Structure formats: C-alpha cells, structure tokens
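User: My instructor asked us to take a sequence, write out its structure as tokens, and then describe one feature of it. I'm not sure where to start. Here is the sequence I was given:
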Amino acid sequence: MYFVKHPRRRLTVLAALVLLAGVGGCSGRYPVTGKVAFADGAPLEEGTVVCEMKEGDQTIMARGTLQRDGTFKLGTEKPGDGAKPGKYRVLVMPRSLTDAEAAITPPIIDPKWQRYETSGLELEVKPQGTNDLNITVTKPQLRRRT
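Assistant: Let's start with the prediction itself. The structure tokens for your sequence are:
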C-alpha cells in the first residue's frame, strides 16, 4: 500500500526497473568469442573475423580483431559489443599487407578462408548459452610446377 499512497515513489521504482532492464543486455546483441588457429594449434596472430547475415534486404555485419593469441570478440557497432541473434556466414582476413610486403611475402592462410563462398564457415548467434566460434585455418597449398 506504500506505493499506492506515494505515486512519486512508484514512478521512481518503475524508472529504476526500466533502467536496469536496459543495462541487462536488451541491446539485442549477444557476446561472441572465439579463436583462429592452424591445425597445429599455432594462433593466427593478426587479422579479422568478419560475419555477415541477411535480414530481409538489409545486411548485418559483425567483426572481431584477432589478438596475438588468435582470440577475438565480435562487435556490431563497436569492438566487442556482440552480435544480433541469427545465422551468419563467416570469413577470416589475415593482416593486410602493403604492396611491397605482398610482393615478397607468401600468403599466410589459404585464400579460401577469405571469401564467404569458399570458407564454409557459419555461426549461429543464440540469445541463451555461450556463442563460441573456434576456427581452424590452413596454410596455402603449394603449387607444383609442371
């Protein structure tokens, strides 16, 4: 009955509850973490994981910068702020090389990982549970001279 007699107190409590609901993760994005490594366990130390989802005629993107240990956190609007729920196509981009570096440095990962159409990687972001994406990449295949 205290709240009925004091409507101002009731509004203050209601405003506090609304504020807490906003802080609790109602942004519509959920944390996604993962790691990119080679089959031998060595991490891909530099690069970006890029995810794309179609929502009607709109494209939703999320990306995460690789740390030295190969780990990343996806972000949609800012680094690490999470991704919207849904199914994403995924690609891995190694660190960009300058033209001079590219001329003398062979690719560090197989180019197939750098395209949605060839990576074969998918991610489903769910509102409950953990959203982990661990990716094993391969090195480029050596071409045999004939």
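For the description part of your assignment, you could build on this observation: The chain has four helices and seven strands. Try explaining in your own words what that tells you about the chain.
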